[in-house]
Structures are given as structure tokens and as C-alpha cells.
């Protein structure tokens, strides 16, 4: 398997994870406006602007990942995928660590 093919496969996985984050944020926006509020921090007016910024940020990351897929024949294309992967995996690691912390209590 060539390096370019492995990079394209890795970037497709990143695109899937980024799409999952966008869907996660859209779900929370819909949930913020459709469910009764438990606290003032979960209101739609507080939460929605930050989620909209997160959606735009991960959409931009999806665009950059697509550019890496297009330029995967370049020898240093994999260097572009490392920071994109770190930014993409950060929310997943926070969610995982939070759930592990809650299981321990």
C-alpha cells in the first residue's frame, strides 16, 4: 500500500470524525431550543453561538482535510494531517476522559 493511499484512508477517517462533530453540535443546538432548560448555562442564547463557531471551525477542518486528500501525492502532505488530526481528536478525548471520570465517582 502506497503512502498516498494510506494518507487518503486516514483523511477519510478524519472527515468522518469531523462530520460526527458537526452533527453533534447541530444536535445540541436543536436540543437547546426544544427541551426545557435545566440551568442558565444550557440556554439557547448562551450555548448556540459557541456551537455555531464550532460548526464553522470543523467545517473549515473538513475543507483542509479535503485539500490534504487532493495533495496526497506530495511527499510532505502527511505533515498537514497531523495538526488537523490533533484538533479533531481533542473533543473526542475530552468526552472520553469526562465519561471515565464520571464512571469513577
SSE diagram, text form:
Layout: H1 3-34, H2 44-70, H3 77-104
Helix pairs in contact: 1-2, 1-3, 2-3
What can be said about this structure in brief?
Helix content is about 85%, strand content about 0%. By secondary structure, the chain is mainly α.
Describe what this molecule looks like in 3D.
With 105 residues, the protein is an all-alpha fold. It has one domain (3-104). The chain has helices at residues 3-34, 44-70, 77-104. The longest helix has 32 residues, at 3-34. The chain is elongated. It starts with a helix and ends with a helix.
Biggest β-sheet description: none
Number of strands: 0
Unreliably modeled segments: none
The helix content, as a percent range, equals over 70%
Which series of helices and strands comes N to C? HHH
How confident overall, as mean pLDDT? 84
Integer-rounded radius of gyration: 17 Å
Structural class: mainly alpha
Strand content: under 5%
Distance between the termini: 45 Å
Count of individual helical segments: 3
What is the number of independent domains? 1
Keywords:
elongated, 105 residues
Amino acid at each position: 500500500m502506497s503512502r498516498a493511499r494510506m494518507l487518503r484512508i486516514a483523511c477519510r477517517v478524519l472527515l468522518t470524525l469531523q462530520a460526527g462533530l458537526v452533527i453533534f453540535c447541530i444536535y445540541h443546538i436543536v436540543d437547546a431550543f426544544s427541551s426545557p432548560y435545566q440551568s442558565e448555562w444550557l440556554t439557547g442564547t448562551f450555548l448556540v453561538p459557541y456551537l455555531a463557531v464550532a460548526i464553522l471551525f470543523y467545517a473549515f477542518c473538513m475543507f483542509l482535510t479535503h485539500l490534504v486528500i487532493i495533495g496526497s501525492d506530495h511527499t510532505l502532505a502527511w505533515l498537514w494531517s497531523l495538526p488537523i488530526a490533533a484538533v479533531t481528536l481533542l473533543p473526542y478525548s475530552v468526552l472520553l476522559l469526562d465519561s471515565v471520570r464520571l464512571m469513577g465517582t
